[in-house]
Amino acid sequence: MPTYLRSRSFVALALLPAMLIFIVFAIVPIIWSAYYGFFDWSGLGSLKFIGLDNYEMMLQDPIFWRALKNNLILVASAIIGQVPIALLLALLLLKNSMFNRVIRSAVFMPMVLSTVVVGLIWGYIYQPQIGLLNTVLEMLGLDSWIRAWLSDPKVNMYAVSIPINWANIGPYLVIFIAALQNISSEVNDAAKIDGAVGFRKLFYVTLPNIWDTVIVTIILCISGSLKAFDHVIVMTGGGPAQSTELLATYMYNNSFTVYRYGYGSAVSTMIILISALLIGLNYIITKRRG
Amino acid sequence: MKKRLTLVITLIALISLLTAACSSGNQTNESHEGGSNEKVKLTIWHNFAGDDLRAKAVRGLIDEYKKANPNVELDAQAIPVDGYRQRLSTVAAGNEMPDVFFVYAGSQSQEFYDAGLLQPITPLAEEYPEWKGNFMDGAFDRFEFEEGQIYSAPIGLSATSFLYYNKDLFEKHGVKVPTTWTELMAAVKTFNDNGITPIALGNKAPWVAQSTILGSLADRVTGTDWFLKAVKGEASFTDPVFVDALGKFKELVDNKAFQEGANSIDNTQAEQYFIQGNAAMMVSGAWTLTNLAASATPEQVAPIEVTTMPAIEGGAGEAGTISGGAGGGFALSKKTEGAAKDAALDLIYSISGPDGQKAIAESNSMVMYKMDLASSNVSPLYLKAFNVAMEAGITPVYDAYLSAEAGESINNGLQEIMMGGKPEDVAKKLQDAQARSTQK
């Protein structure tokens, strides 16, 4: 390989187009949005500078806190649900047999489906009168468990989080399989000779070897859950009465349904701050353990 | 090097193509040269560009006018609904309105009037008084910017609150079709006792309960005048009368008038639930006619009847009304004068006049013009609804008058009541939201 290909300037040059696109379409809008967050603005017409009033209003709005709580439920369900299940499936489906490949595609399938389709499918599963779930419960004689899954505020947030987890396991499975295949066979052989099998092997050999991957997946889970939007919009629209409102749907409704564009911008800036905070927290915790 | 040159040339070609495409969209209309000579040039803009029956009917009317008036050189532009509002605002800003154009009732036509872009079509009303008299009450309310002057005639009605009911279920269980609140509650009880959902409701998109039920329910309790005052801030939504109105809605909820989980299914699913005979009633707008016509079998539709929401004893509002709004109509540009103006008025009359209204009504869509459709080839269910609407007074739809934020607040508030919330709290939130937006 010629040396100039390895030089820093070439790397910089090669990255430049992608960086430019990223800056123009991601970084600049974030800065603009943060800027609009200081204004009372309907999206049209004149901007009125109001300093931090939007943030003050946000912190006083109980719906904002409910949205944040719902997002944290999603984050928790993603970390408790998606990561361990994906890891378990990856361990089970590691070998490249025909059967395993079929199952892997099946697990990945919902990821390929449009989120609208996923939302509609689960909307029908949860449908209160003719839905699959309630019908099955009725057949099993569990009539007392039957409820309106998506409109009962006691359960609907959990009901909503299941399809989101279901749809998102696929990529983590792929990431984990790749990481597991990267563990060199010497390590595995050595573990076998030393008699490490089962859980012992998992905790002392496998997990430490893929720990970096686990951290990355947790970060992906956090950021993915904080910007969750599409499944919820399709299944409940953030309702009923904003009981499944997430930060993103809260931001969307404020900006585009009631035309408080400045306020919506402030909310989106807040989402970035919360996201950064959680990821930072995760970094500190996992680093200590690693 | 050569490659780069080709690239540059391609880019230039592309850009020039784009600019050409843009500029061709901005043709100005030179249409006022008529007057002395015979030939008159007219432009008309409308948004009936789609493939639905109504759009075809309106385009058909324009074509007929073209044929009947060979001396008029008519340039008709059908602009898709999505972009129509904006296209019109753009030419309005440049004071280059087409001679005749479709305007929505409400804020859009008000803005054009305020900007001095419209002239009244009152001459038509003077020429054809019988035509004007045939409109439903209140049809011209939103086009009468000055006393005695009308600026457009509505060619549509968006009715949001018919009470659809399944005749067979009522007969089978010996229930009287409710004409009063007491009768409605009795019907709710009987149907519940027999394991039938009294009223199908799909309130996942939260405007449904507000637009179909609350509008006419609250109007019966508060009266229309109170609501219009409350919108302007001269009365408060925390007034006991409105809390009572919300209380009526809560009464429906508490008596299990709606099926379980109504907040998580959408309007179309509720329609299906109703048409399959699982529910005895459904309160919904004229759109349900279209949906049922498209998806239900004739046997399913046969037992469905249409009426208005029952009266509420002791309420301040009138009974027998439906909530709804005047649809848009065709308006006349201020700049159109002389022979062109006469031709333009003729054109408006040929779309909005008796024949035009009939053609539109026969495309199975509601109009505000009274007529006998019995012999026309329209769907039976539509005919029933049309006759109900002809007899009914029209009362305001809440979210057409409230600010966006207040509309959202009452939409969510009704869901909250369905989940056990208190009418007082919902009323307070609505008042706060409306006050916030009227202050600005």
Automatic annotation (TrEMBL), chain A:
Pfam families from the UniProt entry: BPD_transp_1 (PF00528)
Any single Gene Ontology cellular-component annotation: plasma membrane
Keywords: Cell membrane, Membrane, Transmembrane, Transmembrane helix, Transport
Mode of membrane association: Multi-pass membrane protein
Keyword Transmembrane: yes
Family, similarity comment: Belongs to the binding-protein-dependent transport system permease family.
Domain of life: Bacteria
Subcellular location: Cell membrane
One Gene Ontology biological process: transmembrane transport
InterPro entries (alphabetical): ABC_transporter_permease, MetI-like, MetI-like_sf
Bilayer-crossing regions: 12-38, 72-94, 106-125, 157-181, 202-226, 261-285
Residue ranges of domain ABC transmembrane type-1 in the record: 68-282
Protein name: Sugar ABC transporter permease
TrEMBL record, chain B:
PROSITE patterns to which the protein is assigned, alphabetical: PROKAR_LIPOPROTEIN
Name of the molecule in the record: Extracellular solute-binding protein
Keyword Metal-binding belongs to the record: no
UniProt keyword Signal present: yes
Keywords: Signal
Signal peptide as annotated in the record: 1-20
PANTHER family from the UniProt entry: ARABINOSE-BINDING PROTEIN-RELATED, DIACETYLCHITOBIOSE BINDING PROTEIN DASA
